[in-house]
Amino acid sequence: MPTLSLPLSNLLKNKEGFKRLIADFKYLHSRSGIWTVSTSAPWISSSRGPNSALVSRRQAPVGQLTAGNMCTSSSDDKTSWLWSVYNETKQQTQDLIPVISNNFVNPDTIFANNQMSLQDIEIYGFDYDYTLAFYSSHLHTLIFNIARDILIDEHRYPEGLREYDYIPNFVIRGLHYDVQKALLMKIDAFHYIQLGTVYRGLNPVPEKEVIAMYEGSHVPLEIMSDFYGKSSHGHTMKQFMDIFSLPEMTLLSCVNDYFMKHNIDYEPVHLYKDVKEAIGDVHVRGIMYRAVEADIEKYICYGEQTHAVLQKLSRNGKKMFLITNSPFDFVDRGMNYIVGKDWRDLFDVVIVQADKPGFFNDRRKPFRRVTDKGVLLWDRIHHLEKGQIYKQGNLYEFLRLTGWRGSKVLYFGDHIYSDLADLTLKHGWRTGAIIPELRKEIKIMNTEEYVHTMTWLQALTGLVEQMQVHRDPASQTVIQQWIDEREEMRLRTKDIFNAQFGSLFRTYHNPTYFSRRLSRFADIYMASLSCLLNYDLQHTFYPRRTPLQHESPIWPEQTSTGAINIPFQSQRTTTGTE
Q1: 3-state helix/strand/coil string of 112-178
Q2: Is 127 a catalytic residue?
């Protein structure tokens, strides 16, 4: 469930406002459970400070919610009573909407999973693609079209596939693909499939069929993707974590759709491997790189703010390095456009074609120096020098040559596995995830429609949970209508983000598999590097302490700051969507 944030500066301006707020929530407390206090919400754009509130709700077991005579009252009386509680709760919830709607989560906030102070950071490292450089939607269309044509021209796929064009916003990042069943789906942090988000080709698979295929909706650990999200060593699931993977998922869906429409018998494993190889060829053969370099203004979004971030770090005496899988010519052309021809003066070390994530694990590959014209030199590398370009290498040699170890290093990347996982688990670097989708999702969460729907959804969930103790047929009929309404709202909130797969971060109330990995491998996360411009380099990021399910939701450190938080639905993470 989402975080609905109420800054104290607005809520507690006067005694009357405070009394009204408390009265409203005392009412909701009496109707739908025990309403509690917490300070887990992100910063609010209107206040730009930490005085914000997480809306969550903790439950306590309840028996009858009225005097004992409700047990023996007539069915009509109980039905009327239930609907009266429903209507009064709904009215009280609607009264809170104007207060909640006036307060927004700032899309330029940096969110913390782990406490981290920029004061401790001496060295900043960066990936290139979707970290320093951001691409327009034209790039996904380019990758899709080239890979589709490779399938037709080189792998002898049907000519009819040329009728398919790239479909923007059909898929989202973080989805799983069952290689043997040719199914694309969203899975939550507990390995459960979000029913309604399973697609074969371009069409959803009925829930009953999904449950029959997987004997439920749980995906066993042994068939999930491996550590890096890959389908290997017996794992039949592939997780798409890269922004570059959006065209790949769309192409898989289109080819599956063509084969099914034309009743063509095919082997799903071969299809997956062929599409993977075709997408890889777009990069490996340099086709994409040449196309982008030829029309850089079409494909790269101008990075004035990226330049400002790098200059800010340089002015403050921070060391910086770049480790990317992209080739030097491509990076050089892009950085000239984004930063300027003197971009290399900002970086102490530049490493291209690093082959991440192998770079972080394989000790065998030595560094090799590359000239400005792309000529590979054969001399042994004893120092990583500023102004030089290096290719391949490995992290262990990098650590030996630079001495940049531990928590004084902060590395930014967009790929949670390839960029961040090994660094935080094995080497103790601090990590920052760049999640461009955040900005769009937060803007959706700030809309009146979303706030209204989610506030009532959470209140209704509380009613269902508390009133389920009434087991007589009349009461159950009413409660079932509430459950049906709740399900309809859940589907509507999913569609707000993406009609097929919903939010990147939520599978209804649970975090997604993507979201859980993000919280584990990234100390901080943000929509873009430009968010750093909003903070000084002494700033400490603190994760919001969301109570665990068994913990009291009121913490001494919260009450000592004068914070009062008014929660609706307790949650496991600080970012809430569906």
Answers
A1: ECCCEEHHHCCEEEECCECCCEEECCHHHHHHHHHHHHHHHHHCCCCHHHHHCCCCCCCCCCCCEEE
A2: yes
